[in-house]
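Q: What structure does this chain adopt?
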Amino acid sequence: MRFFHEFPFFFLWFGAAVSLSEMLAGTLLAPLGLACGLIAIVLGHVIGTTLLVLAGLIGSRENQSAMGTVGAAFGSAGRRLFSALNVVQLVGWTAVMLVTGARQFASLAGHLGAIGPISLWIGVLGLLVAAWTVFARAGIGRLNTVAVALLIGVLIVVFVRLLFAVDGSAVVSKSSMRFGAALELVVVMPLSWLPLIADYNRYAKSGRRAAVFTWLGYAIGSAWMYAIGLLMALYYGGLELGAVVTAVPAVVAALAVILLSTVTTTFLDTYSGGVSLRHVFPVASPRVLALGITLIGIVISLVAPISAYQGFLYTIGALFSPLYAIVLARYYLLQVYWEESVVLAWPAMTVWALGVAGYYGFLALDTPIGATLPSFALTAALYVATHRIRARVPTA
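A:
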């Protein structure tokens, strides 16, 4: 039964996937319709989760954090640069998670007579994330396992309630969406975890077994959330749990889902933000820095409107898809890891910049397979070709 020693990684990444942000992304697929939307959800998660797991496997094998694996390809200065970019996106995710959770929490709490401003619920959720940061062990401890097990139970209740609430009359969308654009909105969600996964999977005793449970946990959890979001958009016009559940037991279950999913997922953002920030400013432990990131996320969510969610997802894909195309190509295709004695690997940086431009180019072309796959393949091929050309050029 040694295979199941890494089963906590299923709970870790299932808990990471179960969030309102994934449901919100699922609502964006409504113009595609139910059948094509579900196909995009399944195919996108197969692609994106596979790339995610490959990145985590490097961390397991090399016992390195996510930004440590980036530094192996881009040098010490590149590691600090991308660590800073990762901190920025994780602060953004923290704010998005808190605002989305607080809005839905306030809507549902109104059914129980607990009326309060959104800012109150942002503060409550933020404090719970901070408490989780203090007591959870890198998201892999028993506390997380118990929380996610409870989360699965209450989520089943909410999902069944949603299915029975659907009356078959879909809300007609006036907008249109091509399959490639929808596929991209699915793929970029697991890609958003690329700069985080090795922070946790490096603790695995068996990288391969952890990879299997990671794949199953994230793919199942995230696809489920996207499907719920798609159903809600088709039959209720958007993400509004308050329209689905009205009876007191169902409301309590839905509140539990929001509470647990927001805390467990946002914790991973803040803790990895602390790990990344330590690469830039090694002045405190990741846990202390994570508390600082939680505070910044709370402040941003209170003062800044969270909008343009679709554009935010595309930006993450543009920045981090080419980045990990290079990291994965270097490790799995070239079978090399460290960039010895390099402060900044300019060839890798140049290829990354071309990859970012290529991502936006493919996004504008609206290809049937989205932007991630062609830009990922192009970036990886350019990096491998550049590396082999440099290896043949004699040094002075």
